[in-house]
Amino acid sequence: MTKLVIATGNPGKIQELQALLQHLPITLINPHDLSLFLQIEEQNDSYFANAKRKARAYAKHSGLWSLADDSGLEVDVLQGAPGLQSARLAGPGRSDADRRAFLLTLLQPHPKPWTARFRCVVVLASPEGEIDFAEGVCEGEIIPHERGDQGFGYDPIFLLKDRDKTMAELTMEEKNRLSHRALAIQAILPMITERMEMS
To answer: Rounded to the nearest 10 degrees, what angle do helices 11-21 and 180-198 cross at?
Structure first.
């Protein structure tokens, strides 16, 4: 494996994954550079199933190894919601700010702290359908007021456990050590390295 497709159309995820993988001796490919604009339907059975579906689709259409992730925010007082619905909370076509505001509305009746976690599953897939996968979890809590202007999604209202910083207040270097996506990538790196050595 000398090339790896970042299997997402989300610019924020592409930027984070490229930063996390840039030290590897492989060429990281933005799917837009291949004119790959795939719409992969997420069937909401699990993070793993969604990531596997995306990774295999990009690998099949590109003829290259591909790496996809699926992630979500799980809030304890909401029984793990929004979870798999994190990107679609508040309905279709809504912005990240809309989703944050809607989540805070859902949380208002519940006592604090609103403990939560970000969970990420990454899947590496070959054009032939082989896969490897790993998971990363970042614990914290939801706070009622936004802080920070880095990151995307729920980052401005997610306060990291044991730190007085939201995910949106972290530098890129800090986020690439502490985030759920960073932890999942760290876990799958040995598998990527092994696949590189086999090719």
So the answer is: 60
Active site residue 98: no
Residue 37: half-sphere exposure toward Cβ, Cα within 13 Å: 1
Extended strands (E) in 30-142: 65-75, 114-125, 131-142
* List of domains in the chain: 3-198 (3.90.950.10)
pLDDT, tens digit (0-9, with 9 covering 90-100), for 1-34: 789 999 998 888 888 899 999 999 999 999 999 8
Q: Does the bond joining 31 to the residue before it have cis omega, within 30 degrees of 0?
A: no
Classify residue 61 as exposed, middle or buried by CB count within 10 Å of its CB (0-12, 13-18, 19+).
Answer: middle
Beta strands at 114-125 and 131-142: parallel, antiparallel or unpaired: antiparallel
Q: What is the pLDDT of residues 35-59, one digit of tens each?
A: 888 888 777 689 999 999 999 999 9
The whole-angstrom separation of Cα 156 and Cα 79 is: 21
**pTM score of the predicted model:** 0.91
Which of 45, 70, 76, 162 does the annotation list as catalytic?
A: 70
Contact 75, 103 (CB under 8 A): yes
Max Cα-Cα span within the chain: 55
